[in-house]
Amino acid sequence: MAFFVPLIFLAGALTSSVFEWLQPVSTIEITNVSTRDISYIDIEYRGDYKYTTRLAEKLKPHEGVVFKGISNGEASYSLEVKFDYGTIVSGGAGYHGRGDVVREYVGITGVMSSTRNFPSLFYSDPRETTHHEKGSTRADRLKSERSH
């Protein structure tokens, strides 16, 4: 009988480990739906940790990039996109949970987002997720911090 207790414990530990490894990560698919080249796409990611990174540079029309985020639960993000002629657009769905897939469609005038929440097989209708408020881009925030 004493032999079975460690065996049962080991089986439980292995089972929970396998299920944890199989947990899906969140995916953010970003597509340039404009007729202009994108100079860069930056993402500010806030989950278990916060960081900003450059996802892509010199993205042609109808090209895309995929970002996979790992989080122990919920996370949020914001995109900043600069077009080749200088216009900066910021936005994005913002929130995602483990296993979700978000499709971001970046155009000259803004960002549209469509989500598929895990375990659903269907995407939501695209919705406007552009940040229009003053100070919404990272460049605006840096200017504001320097002026104080």
Task: Give an account of the 3D structure.
The chain is α+β, with helices and mostly antiparallel strands. It has one domain (24-143): Immunoglobulin-like, CATH 2.60.40. A five-stranded mixed sheet has the order 4-1-8-9-10, with no helix packed on it. The longest helix has 18 residues, at 4-21. A hairpin with a 4-residue loop joins strand 5 (75-83) and strand 6. The model has no long low-confidence stretch (mean pLDDT 81). It is elongated. It is 19% helix and 43% strand.
Describe the SSE topology.
Blueprint: H1 4-21, E1 26-32, E2 38-46, E3 50-59, E4 64-69, E5 75-83, E6 88-91, E7 95-96, E8 101-107, E9 110-116, E10 127-128, H2 138-147
Parallel strand pairs: 1-8
Antiparallel strand pairs: 1-4, 2-3, 2-5, 5-6, 5-7, 8-9, 9-10
Q: What is the gist of this entry?
A:
The protein has 148 residues and is of the alpha+beta class. Helix content is 19%, strand content 43%.
> What is the CA-atom radius of gyration, in angstroms?
20 Å
| Major pleated sheet | 5 strands, mixed
CATH class: Mainly Beta
Task: List the helices and strands in order.
Answer: HEEEEEEEEEEH
User: How are the strands of the biggest sheet laid out side by side?
Assistant: 4-1-8-9-10
Number of discrete domains: 1
Provide the CATH topology: Immunoglobulin-like
CATH architectural group: Sandwich
What is the percentage of strand-forming residues? Answer: 35-45%
Determine the CATH superfamily: Domain of unknown function DUF5300
- Give me the number of helical elements: 2
Query: What structural class do you assign from the helix and strand content?
Result: alpha+beta
